[in-house]
Structures are given as C-alpha cells and as structure tokens.
Design goal:
This protein is about 30% helix and about 25% strand. By secondary structure, the protein is α+β, with helices and mostly antiparallel strands. It is globular. It binds adenosine-5'-diphosphate and magnesium ion.
Length: about 350
C-alpha cells in the first residue's frame, strides 16, 4: 500500500455535513495543498500542537485505538484549557511500515473522539520513520475570552476537574513498583491510555475562570506556570502563590475504587497516603483542568461542573506570597518535595 492509498483508506473520509448549530466550517479538507477553514466571523483562532513519540510517551504494545484516542485527546485538552471550541485538526504521522491492523485501530480510536467533538481531520503529512504522531488542533474563541495562564488573582480559589494521579498509578504498576487488583489497574490504565479532554467544562468556564491550564506534567509543575504567569496586583513583581489543602486533593479515581471495594480483591490493596499524594500532586498525564476563579463564584463553578457533567473540586487558594504551600486537613504546613515531569531535566 502506497502513501496516497494509505491516506485515502485510513484518513480521508467523505466530508460530513456539519452538525447543526456548529460554526466550524471546513471549506477544503484532505486532498489539496492546504486545508481551508472558515472560522465564525469575528472569532479568534486557538492553535496547539502535541507530539507523541514511541518509547517516550507510549509503549509499542499499546492498543492502537487507544493511542489514536490519546493523540487527539491531549490536543483537545489544550483547547479545553483555553476555553476554545474545536474546529478541526491535522495529523503528521511517521510510520516505520504500513501495518494495516495498526492503522485501522489507530484511525478508529482517533475518529471516535474526533466525531464526539465534531472536530474533523482536515489534513496532515505521512512519512516513513520511527513511530511519531503529531497533531495540531484549531479552535475558536470570542475575542479576549480565551482562558489564559496569566489571570490568577490573590484570593481566587483553585479548582481541579475529575481525578488526578490515576495515570501515574497505572505507570507505576507497569514499572512493577506497585501492585493492585486487576479491576483497579484496568480503571487506572483506562485513564492513562484514554484520557477525557474537558472541552465542555473549558467552554463553560469562559467568563468564570480567571486562569486555566491542563494538567499534563503533574499538578504542581503545571500550576507553577500559572503562578509565575500571574500577578499579585498593580506594580507588584510577577508571580503569585498558592495554598493547597492536601486533604482535598487525594482524588484518585482508582483509590475510590479501592475504598469502595467494588471488587473482592480491592480490600487487599493498600497504597500509602503519602504515595497517593505524590501521584496526585506530581503524577502527570491526567489531562484534567486546573483553574482559578473568584471565591464569589464558588457556587457558579459548582453549577458549571454539574451542567457539564464534570466533577470539580476546590483544593486551594491563590495568595500574594509566591510559592506553593501544602497544608494538611488541620491547616498544618507540609514539606513540599514533589516534582513534576520535565523531558529535559
Ligand atoms: P503535499 O505534497 O502538498 O505536502 P501530501 O502529498 O503530503 O501533500 O498530502 C496529500 C494530502 O493528504 C494533503 O491534503 C494532506 O493534507 C493530506 N494528508 C497527508 N497525510 C495525512 C494524514 N496523515 N492525515 C490526514 N491527511 C493527510
Ligand atoms: Mg506533505
């Protein structure tokens, strides 16, 4: 199978009628030199790229449908963090060989998520080489309404969506460092391989959240970007700080499974609370949103979580003093020796 047959067979699909009410317009999709998109007049474009490299971001043994899902999910997560509505995406793919079973699975997982978000594949590039997947997503947002990292204000509350730490738990099981029952592992592994981009929540947080970021490298590390980009006030030096109530952060979905003992073996599992906290604060690969919002909008944020069927938890507060302060349930300061992932560290 040649390059063009491959593209036609696995990636070019008959153009779909736009879902009613959606503004995204693909004027020209796959097949010409450029894709031509028609954003809603007056909207700003939001653009993000994410690359997945075999051996670095995923193992060769991963289910290709899950990989297709994840490659797009991590990109949609960036749009979500900016409060942008998906318009379409491109796919640059480097493949060692034409493996039709792999391509069929990969494109199935990719398009299932793309269709769920009405986000069409509009173009790309295909070449031979080490397995490498790079997606660029395009989204739109009303002028000035994008959620940015730089808007956190002193007194704002810090929120996270969903659960943190599950992907890390799955990774540690793969590494042989932790052992959990199959039911718990399956749940954690699904979170690692098929993260849920919080697009609906991101859109609904426009005008409510003061700053947002998606958690890909670990909560504390990603939060650091928000803290450094934000300002304590007029004339103040750059940067704000945060106080995090660690009693509210232990939100692993898998640990809830353990606690609920929904599976007979689950009662035998014990992950030390200190380790759980490490996974939650520094785990990475969560693709949840961390965002700040004025304390006066506390109930509005809760209602937004309900309206978008996305769990949201308030875990802390922005303070003027730079740095991260972790406190326990009684407000006592804890030592912070959690570090997040850095590809070049
Ligand atoms: P060019 O030579 O202009 O770079 P190509 O021959 O690489 O174009 O690609 C032909 C068409 O197929 C283009 O419209 C391109 O966007 C699309 N395409 C190539 N690879 C992919 C892919 N992996 N997914 C989606 N579209 C692709
Ligand atoms: Mg090309």
């Amino acid at each position: 199978m040649g390059e063009f047959d491959l593209i036609r067979h696995y990636f070019a699909r008959p153009s779909q009628p736009e879902a009613p009410g959606l503004s995204a317009g693909t004027v020209v999709g796959i097949g010409d030199d450029c894709a031509i998109l028609q954003p809603t007049p007056g909207m700003q474009l939001a653009i993000s790229s994410d690359m997945l490299v075999e051996g670095r971001h995923f193992l060769s043994t991963v289910n290709p449908a899950h990989l297709g899902h994840k490659a797009l999910a991590v990109n949609l997560s960036d749009l979500a963090a900016c409060g942008a509505r998906p318009l379409g995406f491109t796919l640059a793919l480097s493949l060692p060989s034409v493996d039709e079973a792999w391509l069929a699975g990969f494109s199935r997982g990719l398009f299932a998520l793309a269709d769920a978000h009405a986000c069409p594949l509009v173009g790309g590039d295909t070449t031979r080489g080490p397995l490498n997947i790079c997606i660029t997503v395009f989204g739109e947002v009303p002028p000035g309404q994008a959620l940015l990292r730089s808007g956190a204000k002193v007194g704002d509350q810090l929120w996270v969506s969903g659960t943190l730490g599950d992907a890390r738990l799955a990774l540690e099981v793969f590494r042989g460092n932790v052992s959990v029952p199959m039911a718990v592992f399956d749940a954690a592994r699904a979170r690692m391989e098929q993260p849920t981009p919080r697009v609906a929540l991101g859109l609904a947080l426009r005008g409510i959240a003061s700053a947002a970021i998606d958690v890909s490298d670990g909560l504390l590390g990603d939060l650091g970007h928000v803290l450094r980009a934000s300002h304590a006030g007029q004339g103040a030096a750059g940067g704000v700080g945060v106080r995090i109530d660690t009693a509210k952060t232990v939100t692993l979905f898998a640990s809830n499974l353990i606690a609920s003992r929904g599976h007979p073996d689950c009662s035998k599992v014990h992950i030390h609370p200190r380790i759980q906290l490490d996974y939650v604060l520094a785990g990475g690969d969560d693709y949840e949103l961390a965002f700040t919002a004025p304390a006066a909008l506390h109930n509005t944020v809760l209602a937004t979580g309900l309206a978008t069927s996305t769990p949201v938890t308030c875990i802390g507060q922005i303070e003027a003093e730079p740095g991260v302060r972790l406190v326990d349930g009684e407000g006592r300061l804890l030592k912070n020796n959690y570090s997040s992932f850095d590809h070049f560290a």
